[in-house]
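Annex B. Sample input.
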Amino acid sequence: MQNLIKKIASDYPELEISAGERFQFSPPNRLYYTAKETEQPEFLLLHELGHFLIGETDYSTDIELLEIEAKAWAKARELCDNYQISYDEDFAEDHIDSYRDYLHYSSLCRNCQLAGYQDNNGNYHCALCGATWTNKKSPTDLVK
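Annex B, continued. Sample output.
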């Protein structure tokens, strides 16, 4: 892991890489990694590097968040060859699925459990009962 961190730091000198509680990209240029035992840490680091490289961090809807996550995993796939890391499709899809699960959970009407739709302000609306809600949970509360 340390060799990968050194290589990424050399390839992207503008990037600040440091230990943290979890793998995370913090705009504009900080990557965090964890020293805790975790499955495929190098692959997770490349995913976070993917966030940095795609440059998309702002979203107003949960579907936009899912799109950003999918793009970061796609960028990680491109980076795997450069860093001699094998791409694990199942691992990446499991992580993307956790955001799909978050989106599904967020969209469920609190009154009737029908899947609602989200407006550009982040509010969900139910077409059946007319309820409106905003998901109070953070994606990090529900995803891997």
